[in-house]
Protein 1
Amino acid sequence: MKRLVSYTFLAFCLLITANLSAQKFGYINSQALIQQIPQVKEANAELEALKKQYEKQGQDKVQSLQTKYQALERKQAQGELSPKQLEVEAQALKQEEMEIAKFQQEIQQKLYEKSESLLKPIRDKIQVAIDDVAKENGYTYIFDQSMGILLYADESVDVSGLVKAKIGM
């Protein structure tokens, strides 16, 4: 009975060792790859232009609000407003201030959505290329060096060149 357990354990260890030695690992630096893709540069330029456009709109709104606050302060200093009128106008300016804050949040959301619509197809294309390279070359795992989870890698298992070729670079 002891021999049967020993042989079973030995067979199990041999299977695990054989299984581990048959695995092939590779790595890629996806951030470096992404930065080299012309469509990413175009998408980033488009996002930057959109961001500047939104910033200009936001600055115009803030400038308008500041002008209104200054006008309200001037009217108050000159005694042109009753306390009730001052309260009503101040409340209106507070409301406008909240609208500007909401506008800024909406801009952030729109920029994120635009970024996703431009960059997701590129990321998907890279992932398909990585999957294809792994299957075609027998890799069990491909790690991403840019994510900081790769502690050591032999440069001979860098699959970046294969992925670049797969996406046509």
Protein 2
Amino acid sequence: MSKIGLFFGSDEGNTESIAQRIAKRLGEDVVDIHDIGDVTQLEFLDYDKLILGIPTWDFGQIQSDWEDFWDDVEAINFAGKTVAFVGLGDQFGYGDFFLDAMGMLHDVVIKTTDNIIGYWPTEGYDYDASKAEITLGAEVAGKKLFMGLALDEDQQPELSSGRLNLWCAQIHAEFGLDTPLIELDD
């Protein structure tokens, strides 16, 4: 069984907590969690399946550890890898920049792979603009989606558990995992 590498950056702990909650759902024996502040490009080579977790700060800024690693992530060849994204943001305080960092990270990764999974519907969110929003083609009838799971731990924390359960079930299937999936109410 190939493991999933989950790489995250977190200043206040929200994205780290989400990474741990994802690992519990997919199986802690299936997911290796890495703080982006403690890795090199070489760790990415160990995985064919990746989950990248990134929060957006202030007015569309990249979280500090991801920012420090940005030149390195741009040098990684993601060819042959399946990649899913998780973005955290504040849709009410920064509704013009909701999940922009996830969109910027997606734009880097998509340069070397087109095997992106985990797209997520934009319904149920109240924001003005997002670099993480994408309109896919005929397979979803031109529906607007986020490039990955969208979470707002500041304004909608009560929705995160349900969203995590649904998204983890989705990527469990899209990754083709044959391990048990655990739904949690955390």
Protein 3
Amino acid sequence: MSEFLEVFGAKTHNLKNVRVKIPKHKLVTITGVSGSGKSSLAFDTVYAEGQRRYLESLSTYARMIVSSINDDTKVDEIRGLSPTISINQKTVSSNPRSTVGTITEIYDFYRLLFTTVGVPYCPEHPDVALKKDTVSSVTATALSAAPGEKLYLLSPLSKKAESAKFSEIANEVLEKGFVRFMIGDALCSVGDVEGPDLVP
């Protein structure tokens, strides 16, 4: 991979067919008088083109999360450009819940990064990685069970069930057309008079 970022024929705003070669893996500062095109080169050319390429690699849903970008950059060619993010000067929000991540919108990129490459683990079983199951994977698991082996396909009840009495939970389960449910590790039935000790 090239050790330089090369821009050919940048014409955004005040830039007049500018050609520049910027070293990678370095802290580079662009200086100049007011109106010389510093921001046009950094944000409206290099960053805009990098973000456009980055968004093209994402799914349609992911593109909806990230803020929209401007029209195509006015540049002949950019070589050695990787997906980019930028932290621009912005008016500080008065919202007490705002952070550096939300103000600069870098939080959106982190969220996409961790949902794409991150591996979540169960907080109660740190050795168990969580994954999304498909209909086919659930079906395959059910069909792989040994003859006579019992399987439980569970789904959470409504939020109000977390603080409900046992009889109220049993009635809700029955109304949904089921007769068995689990509270903690205990298997219960709608015909039971009372539930496990952890339920009031």
Protein 4
Amino acid sequence: MAAGEADIDRCPPGGAEGIQRLAALTGRPAKPLDPAHGQERPRALAVIDEAWCIGCTLCIKACPVDCIVGASKRMHTVIDAQCTGCELCVPACPVDCIAMVPVTGERTGWAAWSTPDAQVARERYDFHRFRVDRAARENDERLAAKAAQKLADLPAHTQHTDPATIERKRAVIEAALARARARREIP
């Protein structure tokens, strides 16, 4: 939404009141929740059927608040107090071992959240984004250093050190890194 690619009517957890608040913040007209993105209902927590979990880590990667813990080829579990009920882990699971269990009774949308709960979720999401961005940056730096080292290790007679050749190679590497970043950002 911040990038202008999504409308304000696509957040089932926020419900009708969330859409009203987004409309007020963005100056966009309020509209009903888009049913293609879900329906307003009580907040739920993800629960992993540990007997079926194969430890693939796909749910861990999908969780925007890092509330799923486990290791490769090991059973995973959800830290209930940190789960926002976003459901992004459900389609990521290849063995369908994640269920969403309602935890707020009849309270839906904005009423299903306390202000402290919302603040903690926001902070966890911000830290998740920081961690993912840092890991991507560190990986890009590692790859660039590795490429530079390979270039430096070439025999002198095969190195092309004229500025135009170096700039051309640098452009090719930067384009490849940009494509890799773009693929990583596609949901």
